[in-house]
Structures are given as C-alpha cells and as structure tokens.
Amino acid sequence: MNIPMTKKGYDALQAELTRLRRDERPKNIQAITEAREHGDLKENAEYKAAKEQQQFIDTRMTELEYKLANAQIVEPSRGASTTVVFGVTVSLLNMESQEHKRYTLVGEDEADIKNGSISVQSPIGRALIGHEVGDIVEVHRPAGMIEYEIQSISFEEPD
C-alpha cells in the first residue's frame, strides 16, 4: 500500500526514526538497566515505566519504518493546476457562514490543521480532490454536511 507524502513529510519521518534509533532507544535501554539494579522487578515502578517506554519506542519505530518503506513521494509540479490534487493549496468559501478557509492537501502524517495543512484522506480532502475553481463541494462530516466553494488553487508550501 502506497502512502502519499511530500518530500518534506518523508524527511520529517526519517528524522524522527533516526532520533528514536540514535537517542531515545539507547537512553531507554540505559533506564531499564538502571531500574533493574534497584531490586525486585515486580514492585519496581521505574522498571515498569521504562519497559512501557521501550514498547512505545519500538512500536513507533516499526510504524515509521513501514511508512517510509511504503512512502510514495508526491511533489506536484509548480505550474498552474485547474483541479485540486495532492500538494495544492486551496482557498475555500463556506457557503453557509461565508467564512474563508485555506488548506494545503498533504499526506496523513503531515496534516496540521493549525498550520493550514490537511490530509488528503480527511473528509474535506477527499471531497476536494478532482474539483476545479468555482465548484461547490459537499463535505460530509460527523457534525453534518457543509458546502464549500473552491475559490482558488495554487502551489504553496504550508506554514
């Protein structure tokens, strides 16, 4: 299964994996070793906490390795696009509230709504793909349906 992401997103995941391998895992192993030295492991809270942290680190490393191995780096051309595709920034108008929104469509691991980037797998992202400027798009979400008008499509980096 291919996991779409930008080069920037791929590099961020690679950096996290490197940090976990190089820094966090060795610190955790040291913490386990030190906790073992405190005696009875059945009643040793430090040991239990260190083992739980080890499980978290190992699980995250496995997840990152999978995502990186299956990454499909998508770098859209910087030319003009008439349709919404991965990597574009879309300006939207909420048809009900008349509020303007601006989102960049990125991979799931890169999504950061606070910085204006949303996953192409999100309800809004899925609804926008393939549409053009001027289209009214219906977004079905748990809170109900909402309509947006696509006002512009551009290639910009999210903040």
Keywords:
single chain; 159 residues; alpha/beta; Helix Hairpins; Chitinase A, domain 3; 2 domains; five-stranded mixed β-sheet; two-stranded parallel sheet; elongated
Account of the 3D structure:
- The protein is of the alpha/beta class and 159 residues long.
- It has two domains: 71 residues, Orthogonal Bundle (Helix Hairpins); 66 residues, Transcription elongation factor, GreA/GreB, C-terminal domain (Chitinase A, domain 3, Roll).
- It is 38% helix and 25% strand.
- It has a five-stranded mixed sheet with strand order 5-4-3-7-6. A two-stranded parallel ribbon has the order 1-2.
- The longest helix is centred in the first third of the chain and has 30 residues.
- It is elongated and about 70 Å long.
- The model has no long low-confidence stretch (mean pLDDT 90).
Would you summarize the structure shown here?
With 159 residues, the protein is an alpha/beta fold. The protein is built from three helices and seven strands.
